[in-house]
C-alpha cells in the first residue's frame, strides 16, 4: 500500500508565490509567481486540496504563471497576478489560487 511519501513516476509542477516575496519579502514580488516541482503523492494531494493547478511540465507551469502574472491590463514589469494565495504552502511558498473561470 503506497504512503504519502511515495515518489511520483514523473515530476509534476504547480505555481506558487514568487520566492522574491515568499522568502525575500520584496513587496514588488507579492503578486509574482513561479513554478515548483511536485515529486511525491503527499505533495500532489496537498496542492490539489488547496486548489492549486497541476501541470505536466515545468515549461507549461512557467508559461501559465507568466501569462497569469502579466495579464492584459498589467502595467510595467511588476507582477500582478489577479488570484490569491492559499494558507497552505508547498516547499515553503504559498500555493497560487487562480481566479475561477
| Euclidean distance between termini CA atoms | 37 Å
Would you count the extended β strands for me? Answer: 4
Q: Which segments are poorly predicted (pLDDT under 50) over 5 or more consecutive residues?
A: none
Strand order of the largest sheet: 1-2
> Count of helical segments?
3
Q: How would you state the average pLDDT, rounded?
A: 94
Strand % is: 25-35%
| Envelope shape | globular
What structural class do you assign from the helix and strand content? alpha+beta
Radius of gyration: 14 Å
How would a crystallographer describe the biggest sheet?
A: 2 strands, antiparallel
Report the helical percentage: 25-40%
* Domain count: 1
